[in-house]
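Re: that backbone. Tokens:
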């Protein structure tokens, strides 16, 4: 659904701003500047106000997201089991650092906890969380996604 179509389902009252932003982000993958302009005009706000509201929520993205996001748990249990070494192995294999946003295809993120602490180190690739991802396992796992 386009931003215009989403806006048709809401009245231009301020309380609807966040639901619209979340729906646009979910439908389009992120809130683009073009979408922010449409939303701003509809709610009689500035683009900066819309983007400011959008960036307040971590699930709402304001930049086009890479095709593959790799999340490495950095919670205490996973860290004790070696998640830092797994993260370093991923960085070496991909040739990019955690948080680097220059690769349009892949992004590596460090996250605090998946809530599956007993099975760490845990790594999420796309929508799937994998357990016991030690450095010697992670390369084969990544190859399955990248080849
Ligand atoms: S500490 Fe890694 S899933 Fe909780």
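Recovered sequence:
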């Amino acid at each position: 659904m386009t931003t215009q179509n989403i806006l048709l389902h809401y009245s231009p009252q301020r309380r609807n701003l966040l639901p619209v932003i979340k729906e646009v982000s979910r439908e389009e993958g992120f809130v683009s500047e073009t979408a922010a302009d449409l939303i701003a005009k509809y709610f009689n706000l500035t683009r900066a106000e819309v983007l400011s509201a959008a960036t307040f929520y971590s699930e709402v993205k304001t930049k086009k997201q890479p095709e593959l996001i790799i999340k490495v748990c950095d919670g205490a249990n996973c860290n004790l089991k070696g998640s830092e070494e797994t993260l370093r192995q991923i960085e070496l294999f991909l040739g990019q650092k955690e948080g680097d946003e220059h690769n349009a295809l892949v992004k590596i993120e460090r996250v605090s906890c998946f809530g599956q602490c007993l099975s760490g180190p845990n790594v999420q690739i796309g929508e799937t969380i994998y357990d016991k991802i030690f450095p010697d396992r992670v390369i084969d796992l990544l190859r399955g996604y990248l080849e």
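The pocket of FE2/S2 (inorganic) cluster is lined by residues 73, 75-78, 113-117, 120, 122 (CB under 6 Å). Strands lie at 68-73, 106-111, 123-125, 128-130.
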